[in-house]
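User: When convenient, might I ask for sequence and structure tokens for a protein?

AI:
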Amino acid sequence: MELKINVVAILVAVVINFILGFIWYTLLFGKAWGKEMGYDPNVKAETSLMVKGMVFMLIGNFLFAWVFAHNIAAWTFVPEINQLGPLASALNAAIFTWLGFYVPGHLSSTAWENKSWKLFAINAGYNLVSLLAVAFILCYWTK
């Protein structure tokens, strides 16, 4: 049995996720996130640090989309799972991945690293929206 992986869908998901991250952490929640992280709003980050961050974000987005695509494809071998359709498959993959892998990590950092619930909401919210966006791309493009 072969997993159906659409590399073009993965690359589109990487770009969309990168744009989503930019919008989420600059336009929508940039000031609140910076405040919760303890950053001084009057200090601009060095260009080299920003470039390094964007490169690692792209690498991380690729690894995320690649592994998520394999995870979603692996579920197609479950009997009758294809009857769900792409919408239900995307929602199922995104929500359960978020609840099982992202929320626990954010809960731990909130408790053990003394992070705020506001930061929890910003970061966990981004993860959910990111998972949904990538899952929709992968599920609709593969079906």
About this structure: Residues 47-75 form the longest helix (29 residues). The mean pLDDT is 93. The radius of gyration is 17 Å. Helices lie at 7-28, 30-37, 47-75, 85-112, 117-142.
